[in-house]
Amino acid sequence: MRNNIIWIFVFLFMLSHANGQDISLDLQKIPAFDTVVQIAKWRSMKSKVGVSFGNSNRRYTQNVFPEIKQQNNLNLTAWKGEKLNAQLLVWAKTNVPSIKVAVSELRSNTGKTISRTNITSGFVDYVITDEFAAGCGHRKPQDFAFSLVADPVNTIDKSASLKKDNVQPIWLSIKIPANTTEGNYTATVTVHADKSYQLMLNIKVLNRTLPPPSQWSFNLDFWQHPAAIARVHNVELWSDAHFDLMRKYYTMLADAGQKNITASIVDEPWGHQTYDDYPSLIKWTKKKDGSWIYDYSLFDKYVSFVMSCGIDQRINCYSMVPWKIAFQYYDENLGKNTTFTGAIGSDEYTVFWTSMLQDFTKHLKQKGWFSITAIAMDERPMPAMQAVIKLLKKIDPDWKITLAGEYHPEIEQDIFDYCIASYHSFPDAILKKRQQQGKLSTWYTCCTEKYPNGFTFSPPAEHVWLGSYTAAKNMDGYLRWAYNSWPKEPLKDSRFTAWPAGDTFQVYPGPMTSIRFEKLIEGIQDFEKIKILKEQYKKEDKQTELKALEAVLSEFEIKKLEQQSAEEMIGKAKHILNAL
């Protein structure tokens, strides 16, 4: 009899939240008894509105009430120069027309202050996500489970409304200036809802300093997509308005420590796999006499512009080995654009690219960019990659090459920036040799890995985990193929026609940051802390501290994520980083 009553309650609860939509009773999707009890307890609370700090490593479901202990005080520890994350929650059993957040300055017990301008708040919005399933491959939305997930951080709107029986997460970003005096600081967080609620934010600032993002050693490589920005903002591609908008996105990326400029030197280097075009920055023209001219004006303007945003260490050019061999150029004899489709490594391919590479090399040297420019490749058949390497080195032995793919010992020595898939690893001796040669050794995830990853449904702590894993494996950084290759309506639906939801982007139009992106920065900061501490302990011969740090890093293995959460693992690491 008791069980029957429970299921009747659940069924009525589901109907009451249908909002006029048709609901089919799927027994596998009915909430478990403990969830029902949680809902019942929440409904019985005396206050109509709840406000509390939450867990920044968790995504809170919009219409499932948070299972948390009331937390009016949050204690954080920071290095000088560090950016911290915090999340607070507002939930209600009545409609709340307006929610606003105000944060005071941080003040220490000795009277030192951190200005409130270093604290940013944003309302966390919800988008449609799906599931990992088989990972890579084209997908139809109806074939995959979907739900709403918390991810975009809206710092544009200064207030939000809250519907009855819903949750509104609020994200706080706190920047600790590098010149901050160490000590204990406190700020008051005031949430204005049905009334004013006050929470206390306590930060212990240590006497250690992180360098600014421009000086981080972590090699972050998120591929940029200019055309997507033009499309979502409805401005003309390469117009002044387009460049003004791109600056906001690229500055945000530079503030995360981005090092590489993504430059397309041919049309559609990835075979039009994205929602928006990837046009070439270089115009290729075959003259009537058979000679070639290359217009670099847009390439120069774009590269100079991205550098002015703070991304200026490397220029990665895509690609001599695109996913589909179809190089577009303008033919004066035909009076139209046409396409070259010669096979990589063939004589005609060599002739086609030799002219361009000779001219491009000369141009880059004139601009002073040759030493920081590389021809970039995705994983391709070995003969094709070897043919490109041979051609490049023939044009100029100092040409740099980057590769994202599997580990191939036969071409390793030719790759300046070698980014391997997560299921590969560099041999220890090779990794040490590459470091001595000043070469970069990084890794990436894509649609292949269920974890660790940065989909919209991925646990946020996995993006923090990436930083400590990179340090544990003595690698130099991390690559993800898309910073902003948005689907049709990214602020509503993060799914795409291929790959798990969120695979094609990490931030949102606005620009708006995301839970994923902020947690990635947190992980990169952990990487920088580890590097600083290791160098100090080795220099000062502090073997006890060094062994303690290396012991916790040894736990960072991808296979261990099968049994242990990323949040638990990073918690242990952070305790060491802030205690040693």
Could you explain how this protein is built, in words?
This protein has 580 residues and is an alpha/beta fold. 28% of the residues lie in helices and 26% in strands. Strands 13-24-23-22-21-20-17-14 form an eight-stranded parallel sheet. Strands 2, 4, 5, 6, 9, 11 and 12 form a seven-stranded mixed sheet that branches. Strands 1-3-10-7-8-25 form a six-stranded antiparallel sheet. Strand 22 (417-421), helix 8 (428-436) and strand 23 (440-444) form a beta-alpha-beta unit. Helix 9 runs parallel beside helix 10 and helix 9 (461-472) crosses helix 12. The longest helix is centred in the last third of the chain and has 25 residues, at 515-539. The termini are far apart.
